[in-house]
Amino acid sequence: MSIITSLTGKIIGIVFTILVIATINFILIHATPGDPAMVIAGQSGAADPKFIADIRAAYGLDQPFLIQLGTYIGKVLQFDLGYSYRQRADVSALILDRLGPTLLLTLSAFFVSLIGGVFFGALAGKRQGTWADLAISMVSLLLYATPVFWLGLMLVLVFSIQLGWVPAFGYASIRASSFGPWDYAMDVARHLILPVLTLAAIYMAVYTRLMRSSLIEVSHEDHVRTARAKGLNERQILSRHMLRNAAVPVVTFAGLQASALIGGSVVVETVFSWPGLGRLTYDAVTARDYPVLLGLFLIMSVLVIATNLLTDVLHRLIDPRVKGR
Amino acid sequence: MSEFFRTFLSRPAGIVGLVLLVIVCLMAVLAPLIYPGSPWDMAGMPFARPGEAGMLLGSDTLGRDIASGIVHGARVSILIGLASTLTALFIGVTLGCIAGYAGGMVDGAIVRFTEIFQTIPSFVLAILFVAILTPSIGTIILAIGLVSWPPLSRLTRAQVKTVTQREFVQAARCQGQSTLSIVLRHVLPNAVSPIIVAGSLTVAAAILIEAALSFMGLGDPNFMSWGYMVGAGRTVIRQAWWMSVFPGIAILLTVVAINLVGEALNDTLNPRISRA
Fold first, then answer.
1. CB atoms within 10 A of CB A50
2. CB neighbourhood size of B202 (10 A)
């Protein structure tokens, strides 16, 4: 029963969120000075009159406000996100095309930051007050204050331009189409390293600080003292009695960061010319391609919701007590 | 008050932050005196290395002085950081007060609304907002304020909820004071210190969002900003590292400074919940 009710609750929540986002989109379209049809078409003056007339008919722009809102939401729920006049393609097709690289980037960064944060946080917490703790805390303080795009550029400067270890931008080499499947995967992986490190670094800093204080808190608990009294060695105490407990708040918090992670991917993809949704966002901003921007906003929100569900699953895996809820 | 300063100044990290922050603010205020003339004007030859042609930090692709851009850029960062935080505080504190004090259905609705806003990718919403309403200082402040209020609202709600249960609030209610007067005169003043700390950290986050927006080409075209400078230097980073390195350091130091001050404020104002 509990799983079914929690699932229905989640689905209702998701639908409701999508409705709110569609409404924000709709309000923004109408808040612009000028003709909403022009916003849906792209920049003013770029579209021909017949196309504008088609949009006006399709979205019922001569109808009362609420009916227009209804029409818009109806279209969104059918995954009809409009047409990009500039790119001459359906917005939903453009977005689907770019979804893979973004998922690869954000999911890799999510796991790298989580694993790195738990590792460094545990290291710092375990050696509280030592130079290792101080160094880790200093670095995370600095990383936390670093603009993502600048960190990306600095990594390019050092690791691509100075040292030449990894490619500076792009998804795969130009010759990649002639590669076999294994070589192709390795090529993409080499291109993935810097973007993932950039995106992961800031969140790793946050999780490190959280994990550190969480571990210190757990180390004062009774069950840890019991384990120590039983004569377990420090390593066993850490791996079997402290890590899991201390990691729970970190994972919970990581789930809440999903929306920031997607936002960060926009900047990172811009820096590294990574052909995902973020790069599409940058191109759409530069071209003032509003239908694409509106569609991207919607899809990225859905991605955040999906990540929240994923963290829920992770949460259940590391903390069996959650199952009962 | 003197004890407040004594506690604050006993943290070395807080002093470092405060000194850095004072320097940045002085740069912002004195920019027209330090570098008279527009930071957009050509000051020397393009692609001058740091120290060359009389320009301390070099020049950019159009021969504009990087150092002048950094000093003038401080104005935009500080202005937008403060103004958008005030906007976020206004929205967040108002909603949080209403939710925490009213309770019941109203509380439930506001909490749900806040949760939805936390799900929405805030940076993407800010991009959308600024792009559609055309980039200007006003739209940027509004956009950042609009995406930064949810944590402040949650915090205010929690604070107001605990303070409302205290006896002096009940006493004020028994005296027949109006709700508005109770909230403004009795509840908020006793709930405010964590909100101040959170607000100071929001300034840092707002400066980072502003930098990212202008890096994406969504800055106000009339004002020089650090994010714009990094974005403009990005394409030539192979030939001219200094164009993107120095403005980035300016952002980094400013944000570190504000975070350090925020943490020191936290230790001073909320000694009980500060870290051991």
1. 8
2. 26
Which residues does B contribute to its contact with A (CB < 8 Å)? 116, 118-125, 127-129, 131-133, 204, 208, 211-212, 215-218, 227, 230-231, 234, 237-238, 241, 244-245, 248, 251-252, 255-256, 259-260, 275-276
- Please measure the distance between the N-terminal and C-terminal CA atoms of chain A and give it in whole angstroms: 10
Containing structural domain, residue A171: 100-322
For residue A324, is pLDDT > 50? no
CATH number for the domain spanning B50: value is 1.10.3720.10
Q: What is the pLDDT of residue B274?
A: 42
Q: CA B50 to CA B59: how far, in whole Å?
A: 7
Do the Cβ atoms of B217 and A285 come within 8 Å?
Answer: yes
Q: Does residue A89 fall inside a structural domain?
A: no
Which CATH number does the domain housing residue A258 bear?
Answer: 1.10.3720.10
Distance (Å) from the alpha carbon of A119 to chain B's nearest alpha carbon: 21
Residues of B in contact with A145 (CB under 8 A): 204, 208, 252, 255-256, 259
Identify whether A254 is part of a domain. yes
Give yes or no: residues A52 and A124 share one domain. no
Tokens of residue B255, six digits: 């944000």
Entry pTM: 0.88
Tell me the torsion sign for CA atoms A294, A300, A305, A308. Answer: negative
Reported as a pLDDT band with limits 50, 70 and 90, residue A102 is very high
The ipTM estimated for the assembled molecules is 0.88
Contacts of residue A54, defined as CB under 8 A and 6 or more positions apart, other chains included, come to: none
What are the distances in angstroms from CA B138 to CA A115, B129, B142, B272? 40, 11, 6, 39
Per-residue model confidence as pLDDT tens digits over B169-223? 888 888 888 888 888 888 888 888 889 889 998 999 999 999 999 999 899 988 9
Q: How many domains does chain A have?
A: 2
